[in-house]
Amino acid sequence: MKFSYYWTSEVNQGLEKKMMSCFDRTFGKNSSKNYFKWKYRDNPFGESLHIIALDKDKVVASRAFWRLDIDKTKAYQSVDTAVLPNFQRKGIFKKTALMAVKILKKKIIYNSPNKNSWSAYRKCGWKNIKKSNLTKINITSLMLNSAPVIKWDAETLRWRFRNNPIQRYYNLKKDGNYYIFKKIRKRFFLLVGKTSINLDLNNIKPFICFTYDDSSKGFPFRLRTPWVLKGRINYKIESYLFDLT
């Protein structure tokens, strides 16, 4: 098995197709044809890192370290990790994680792992982000004032929330701000953050909402897998930075 890495600009259409095929076969999905272009090629933050495992010329594992900066500090988020079923439990996860740390050196890497991968990240040197295991619930009108400010320009906001090909976002306008929400189940919504920029999203007015953000005022609702971090950072990592797709 051969391991290779590429920056987004080095991924040609043929390799992109193989990587997306690996991703879709691993998770039983049929991803949008625009997914890779939107997430990686159009990313205003810059180039992402892609690590793949090849069995002959077949991509059997693929994972990305998505460029998504924190307060203008270069940072990457571990996303879209896929290993074909026949190649799982062969150490690919650990090898690619350590390979990324070596390539990115002292850059910040963060992630929101599931319960299956959380312990593996911890073994590779990632640390829990404080209080990131809490989900909060509150009456929406009481939670709005403590929503995190999304510190991006209009172009970046439109790329992340309006142009997303697989996840629809909504907003609620109040006092000159637009509060961005993601639907998480039927009529339940997750408060992502706020901005003064109108993104022309569909309007909603939920009575209650949820949040993953520690700064938002709400009642702890349940525990979940903590977010993890590799690298030193003095900035607070807000929930809107995470891949919520």
Describe how the helices and strands are arranged.
Blueprint: E1 2-7, H1 13-27, H2 35-41, E2 49-55, E3 58-67, E4 75-83, H3 92-104, E5 108-111, H4 118-123, E6 127-128, E7 134-139, H5 140-143, H6 154-162, E8 169-174, E9 177-185, E10 188-195, E11 202-203, E12 208-211, E13 219-223, E14 228-230
Parallel strand pairs: 4-5, 8-11
Antiparallel strand pairs: 1-2, 2-3, 3-4, 5-14, 6-14, 7-12, 7-13, 8-9, 9-10
Order of helices and strands: EHHEEEHEHEEHHEEEEEEE
Low-confidence stretches: none
Question: What is the residue-mean pLDDT, rounded to a whole number?
Answer: 92
Q: Helix fraction?
A: 10-25%
Can you summarize this structure?
With 245 residues, this protein is of the alpha+beta class.
Overall description:
By secondary structure, the protein is of the alpha+beta class. It is 22% helix and 33% strand. The chain has helices spanning 13-27, 35-41, 92-104, 118-123, 140-143, 154-162, and strands at 2-7, 49-55, 58-67, 75-83, 108-111, 127-128, 134-139, 169-174, 177-185, 188-195, 202-203, 208-211, 219-223, 228-230. The strands form three sheets. It has a seven-stranded mixed β-sheet with strand order 1-2-3-4-5-14-6. A four-stranded mixed β-sheet has the order 10-9-8-11, with no helix packed on it. Strands 12-7-13 form a three-stranded antiparallel β-sheet. The longest helix has 15 residues, at 13-27. It is globular. The model has no long low-confidence stretch (mean pLDDT 92).
